[in-house]
């Protein structure tokens, strides 16, 4: 049997806040379309920090930092990851497209591409839109997107929690861009 020991925090060689802010980010923006749960928002920030995502874009009813409920799950990642707020998600998407992002709704729609089949171009900039916990990505936002990606599922439920979805999609983009 192999002996395993949990690493101490100082052994993980993580960047400090200032180093993180200066470090090159992966060209990905995570767009939250009317996500109501502050815990989900915080989880997205924390995962975005883990994968050195460029920014989080909050829209509509999303709470914004500083916020103690977001902080409960973000654990400070709301300070390391850049973020911006738009009142309207469609306006955020149009702004991202104008600044060179390929906008992808993470949603089950006609013509969606399965996540593992989507071709990620190494020099492209991506904005990944994740929707409200009940209604998903708004139809107008889906229509404004360049693509839609869905995560293959085989269970009885038709969707995953938004923060879980965000983690899976961020990991897949990070994995293909970094590793």
UniProtKB/TrEMBL annotation:
Residues in coiled coil: none
tRNA/rRNA methyltransferase SpoU type domain ranges (all copies): 28-171
Keyword rRNA-binding: no
Protein name: SpoU rRNA methylase family protein
Tree of life domain: Bacteria
PANTHER family, per the entry: 23S RRNA (GUANOSINE-2'-O-)-METHYLTRANSFERASE RLMB
Source species: Acetobacteroides hydrogenigenes
GO function terms (MF aspect): RNA binding; RNA methyltransferase activity
Record-annotated membrane-spanning stretches: none
Pfam families assigned to the protein according to its UniProt record, in alphabetical order: SpoU_methylase (PF00588)
GO cellular component: cytosol
Keywords in alphabetical order: Methyltransferase, Transferase
UniProt keyword Transferase, yes or no: yes
GO biological process, one term: methylation
